[in-house]
Automatic annotation (TrEMBL):
This is Oxidoreductase. Coiled coil: none annotated. InterPro entries: AKR, NAD(P)_OxRdtase_dom_sf, NADP_OxRdtase_dom. Residues 25-294 form the NADP-dependent oxidoreductase domain. CDD domains: AKR_AKR13B1 (cd19088). It comes from Nonomuraea rhodomycinica. Pfam families: Aldo_ket_red. NCBIfam families: PRK10376.1.
Length: 299
């Protein structure tokens, strides 16, 4: 059984986002603000969220994924990160995303290309930074088959201006990735992905590796589209492999994800210190080829 209190995020190895080296197990900040994503009801326990962030850094996490639109009543993920970790460690890479936005009532809106600078500056203010390490252009579901050139081009201008160091894309198709790469370098793709992914998604992951682009799946534990959190309905295959390793199903899902390529990173989100340690420890799990193949055949 893995000792979750001693395993470092470095156990899974590293990858470079441009010139920034990160451990392959990071932290998603979405759940730090409340019991459910984007919940405008009861806020999270502020001190507990701050403890999670500081414990993550202690465990070797140097890649945190966030966004200005990650907030609930009284809580902002970016401001929690600032409060917990500033002045920031030299090796800490904070990745954020733009295009979606939310007003103070929690209602969604989508930025025009001209409004992306304001979203970038909002992230800078909340995080207390003078530049952002990586900014992902998060494509809305309604634009999954359309051009992203105008929006990505606007981000490329901000990169040239020094407000952003590196660019990525999120919720994109292979064609949109190619379009973005024709405009400016892309260091990462952030798409839903996990056990049970389609052959098409598997091919996209492989293609990203061939292009030297990091693939950073979200919902690797909960499953694609499970924005409300893990479903708790793991297959007997996942449960059996978990029992064999004296691990949790979530750890097996993360270990499987990390085995899909050296360029595949993990950013599991949690507001629970124990879950955080268990997620980081999953980077040290070593699945056999037989287990990997068995898990890849189903959910």
């Amino acid at each position: 059984m893995l000792d979750s209190n001693t395993v470092s995020a470095a156990a899974a190895g590293t990858w470079k986002l441009g010139d920034l080296t990160v451990n392959r197990v990071g932290l998603g900040a979405m759940r730090l603000t409340g019991s459910a994503p984007f919940d405008m009801g009861a806020p999270s326990d502020r001190e507990r969220s701050i403890r999670v962030l500081r414990r993550a850094v202690d465990l070797g996490v140097n890649h945190i994924d966030t966004a200005a639109f990650y907030f609930s009543s009284l809580r902002s993920a970016n401001e929690l990160i600032n409060r917990a970790l500033a002045p920031y460690p030299d090796d800490l890479v904070i990745v954020t995303k733009v295009w979606p936005g939310r007003n103070t009532s929690g209602e969604w809106w989508w930025a025009t290309p001209e409004q992306l600078r304001g979203q970038v500056e909002e992230n800078l203010r909340q995080l207390g930074r003078d530049h952002l390490d990586v900014v992902n252009l998060r494509v809305p579901p309604s634009r999954r088959s359309g051009s992203i050139a105008e929006h990505f081009g606007a981000l490329a201008v901000l990169r040239d201006a020094g407000l952003v160091r590196h660019l990525g894309v999120s919720n994109v198709t292979p064609e949109q990735l190619a379009e973005a790469r024709s405009i400016a370098p892309v260091v990462c793709v952030q798409n839903p992905y996990g056990i049970g992914a389609s052959a098409e998604d598997q091919e996209f992951v492989r293609a990203c590796g061939e292009q030297g682009v990091a693939f950073v799946p979200f919902f690797a534990i909960a499953g694609a589209g499970a924005e409300a959190g893990a479903t708790g309905t793991d297959s007997e295959t996942v449960l059996a492999v978990a029992r064999a390793h004296d691990a949790t199903p979530a750890q097996i899902r993360l270990a499987w994800t990390l085995r899909q390529g050296r360029h595949v990173l993990a950013i599991p989100g949690t507001s629970d210190p124990d879950h955080l340690a268990a997620n980081v420890a999953a980077g040290a799990l070593r699945l056999s080829d037989a287990e990997l193949a068995l898990l890849s055949t189903g959910r």
